[in-house]
Design a protein that fits this description.
- This protein is about 40% helix and about 15% strand.
- It is α/β, with parallel strands linked by helices and about 350 residues long.
- It folds into 2 domains: about 5-60 and about 160-330, Rossmann fold, CATH 3.40.50; about 60-155, Rossmann fold (3-Layer(aba) Sandwich), CATH 3.40.50.
- α3 crosses α4 (about 85-100), α8 packs across α9 (about 190-205) and α12 crosses α13 (about 290-300).
- Bound molecules: ligand F0G.
- Ligand F0G binds near residues 59, 84 and 185.
Length: about 350
Amino acid sequence: RHQWQGVIEEYREFLDIAPETRAVTLGEGGTPLIHAAHLSELVGAEVHVKYEGMNPTGSFKDRGMTMAISKAVQYGAKAVICASTGNTSASAAAYAAKAGLTSAVLVPAGKIAMGKMSQAVAHNAVLLEVDGNFDDCLTLCRKLSESYPIHLVNSVNPDRIEGQKTASFEVVDALGGAPDVHVLPVGNAGNITAYWKGYTEYRDAGLAGSTPAMWGFQAAGAAPIVLGHPVDEPETIATAIRIGNPASWDQAVAARDESGGLIDSVTDEEILEAHRLLSSTEGIFVEPGSAASIAGLLKKSRAGEVPAGARIVCTVTGHGLKDPQWALHTTDGSAVETTKVPVDAVSAARALGLEDA
Ligand code: F0G
């Protein structure tokens, strides 16, 4: 039986990494591609979900971080820095801890989910809560990494994109070919850039006959690419993708256009509806930002724009336990009611509808 070695060892020949560079790995990648029967039926296509919440720190960021931290060690870096809406910081902190590097993370104050915050702290990051949004944090990090000996591990670092492209390889390997459509959430736009790089490289290597149309979805209150201009004050409950000026904007547009795809937006209501559908009918628990891909697919389905019978992969980017509060509220914002019972079988049976009240 094969023990998954992490994305660097599994795909080393496809990655820009020197043979002598040792992998700093937590066993990332190799995530499940789950056939989604209910969703497939709903949209009239063959839908699979790439569950990236199953990575070691609970998000897709680990694929890029294993590369970025392995190479940071090779470059002789002693400290790394990133801006984050939460998942990048959790991942950077974990891989830096593993490598024995110091990590510094800048996050928008009060706007990152508690699970992510606790990860950064647990992995010993120096955490700065910035009185600004993600875009402000990234600007600060770029300045600091230019002026001080601290290595930037945001996705503007090409090593991150390089690692993240392995998700496309896994999809093609699992399906025996490229899907027709690949759907994913878009925030800072590194991931759509990485997936497109992976798909085109696998095609060029003769390992995937075709490439999918890339469908990206931003949150409606943070949809600069859809609007065609930066958003100064991005707002969405999907804090992971609360970004107004994506660093990889041009690359995302190129991925959209070269693939014959689209970038559109989904409302917070649509995100929460998709979040609930996924957990209640497919058994897959994600954070709200991740549900943007599912919400986007459902939106396109309602508009009659999902090609019948198409093979579709939706990436869900982060685990539901990162930001669990949304499961405990209904879509109108009120708290989900729980049922309390005494230690008594008849009361429990009544509460379960097994006995008449
Ligand atoms: N989904 C989740 C759960 C994310 O954390 C992010 C980005 C995205 C989607 C969007 O990916 O930025 O490559 O377009 N999170 C970054 C962070 C910004 O700091 O954790 P993207």
